[in-house]
Amino acid sequence: DSYGNIRFPFGSSQQSNTLVVLHDAFQPLSFWNGFMQPPMWQGVAMDTHQYQVFSDDDVAMSQQQHIQTACNLSSAIEEYELPVIVGEWSTAVTDCAQWVNGRGIGSRWDGTYPDSPFNNSCAGFSGDASTFSDDYKTFLRQYWEAQADAFETSWGWIAWASEFESGTAEEWSYSQGLEYGWIPQ
């Protein structure tokens, strides 16, 4: 019903130019192969949110594995049957940000999330960017560039988020990434 209301709002066969954007429900794009494909369906795009922090396997990846995973996304985006918009992403590789997993729920990264193993302390990897090592900021820059390059194969991307409160989850922040140099000017 939503598709018809959005694409045919004039009570006739005249289509609107409004795009129907579907969210991937946090499934790989391949999960949706064959869903709402042209020529039957027109004006449909897929919104994908690309984070590498919401599973034990994600947070256990090495820095190089995070970069490689980001690079591999470009082919998935290019090969997908619908236009893709990367609606959310960040340079975060930990889930240490307060409440990112829900209020009062811990982090997979530091093993405080239920049934998750310890990977590392959150200190120096999340929070106040002034505590990040030069090596970590270099990695964040490489990771930013790998993701931005991969996501340029899409119809567009939106970084999450513009800004965080000073000293909190700055690895998630576009403006703090600019300030501390891991996002290029």
Q: Which features does this protein show?
A:
4 strands, 185 residues, 5 helices, elongated, four-stranded parallel β-sheet, alpha/beta
Description:
- The protein has 185 residues and is of the alpha/beta class.
- The protein has helices spanning 2-7, 56-60, 63-79, 134-151, 174-180, and strands at residues 20-23, 44-50, 84-89, 156-157.
- Strands 1-2-3-4 form a 4-stranded parallel beta sheet.
- The mean pLDDT is 95.
Number of helical regions: 5
Name the shape in a single word: elongated
Largest sheet: 4 strands, parallel
Over all CA atoms, what is the radius of gyration?
19 Å
Number of strands: 4
Could you say which structural class the secondary elements and strand pairing correspond to?
A: alpha/beta
* Proportion of strand residues: 5-15%
Average pLDDT figure: 95
Proportion in helices? 25-40%
Order of helices and strands: HEEHHEHEH
How many angstroms separate the termini?
44 Å
For the biggest β-sheet, the strand order reads 1-2-3-4
- Poorly predicted runs: none
